[in-house]
């Protein structure tokens, strides 16, 4: 199997894991629909990728935006083989600091964004009797640490959603969940809590992976034989303990 000829939607495609994934899949011969909020980044990436890329400004927290994204990809490519639900944010904070707006935003992006992505393509994939849903969770979706209660909760939810989808569509749709450890992306830029920022250097004082490392895992999952599926892929830097 190969990613060549596959039509793939990638959310959160303007930077980091999403951009690297789109690049890697396009290099392998896939057609990619880039989705994110930052139009300038999408245009730049699509230009860099070339004719195998299209783009659409999309807010994953907006259900209509996601439905329109799915329809646009189907119209442009004629089909959608894969969706990579990658968009996510990580504004860590202690619960006692009551950063409620950040909690709400994490739930909207990290949980609803995944659900809306699935909803945008599921009927199409079921009708075609094939498809692949790849959800990007986190190692935080396998455990919980101080300041990550809400973030970990959203990533545990991604795990549950993936497992439910797998069982509901077994034999038709392949479902893969990626659990990255520390990756050198813009994800940490969403952290605004002063208590967390004060200690973040000590907490993550090891070399992170690059977006390209996770992109390789996504490509590997897509390119695996059709009669099998890599349900869970955990990827940590060699120095990471948690």
TrEMBL record:
Domain of life, source organism: Bacteria
Swiss-Prot/TrEMBL keywords: Oxidoreductase
Sequence ranges assigned to domain Ketoreductase in this UniProt record: 6-181
UniProt GO molecular function: oxidoreductase activity, acting on the CH-OH group of donors, NAD or NADP as acceptor
Family: Belongs to the short-chain dehydrogenases/reductases (SDR) family.
InterPro entries reported for this sequence: KR_dom (IPR057326), NAD(P)-bd_dom_sf (IPR036291), Sc_DH/Rdtase_CS (IPR020904), SDR_fam (IPR002347)
Protein name: Oxidoreductase
SUPFAM superfamilies for the chain: NAD(P)-binding Rossmann-fold domains
């Amino acid at each position: 199997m190969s990613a060549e000829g596959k039509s793939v939607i990638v959310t959160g495609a303007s930077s980091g894991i999403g951009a690297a994934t789109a690049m890697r899949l396009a290099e392998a011969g896939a057609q990619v629909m880039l989705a994110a909020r930052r139009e300038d980044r999408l245009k730049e990436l699509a230009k860099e990728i070339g004719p195998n890329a299209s783009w659409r400004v999309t807010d994953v927290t907006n259900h209509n935006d996601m439905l329109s994204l799915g329809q646009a990809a189907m119209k442009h490519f004629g089909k959608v083989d894969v969706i990579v639900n990658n968009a996510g944010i990580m504004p860590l904070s202690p619960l006692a600091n009551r950063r409620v707006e950040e909690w709400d935003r994490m739930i909207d992006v990290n949980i609803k964004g995944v659900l809306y992505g699935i909803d945008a393509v599921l009927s199409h994939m079921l009708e075609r009797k094939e498809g692949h849903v790849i959800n990007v969770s986190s190692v935080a979706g396998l455990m919980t640490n101080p300041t990550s209660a809400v973030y970990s909760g959203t990533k545990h939810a991604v795990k549950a959603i993936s497992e439910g989808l797998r069982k509901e569509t077994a034999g038709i749709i392949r479902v893969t969940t990626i659990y990255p450890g520390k990756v050198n992306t813009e994800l940490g830029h969403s952290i605004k809590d002063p208590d967390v920022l004060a200690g973040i250097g000590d907490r993550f004082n090891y070399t992170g992976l690059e977006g390209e490392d996770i992109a390789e895992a996504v490509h590997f999952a897509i390119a695996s034989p059709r009669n099998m599926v890599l349900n869970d892929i955990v990827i940590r830097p060699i120095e990471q303990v948690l």
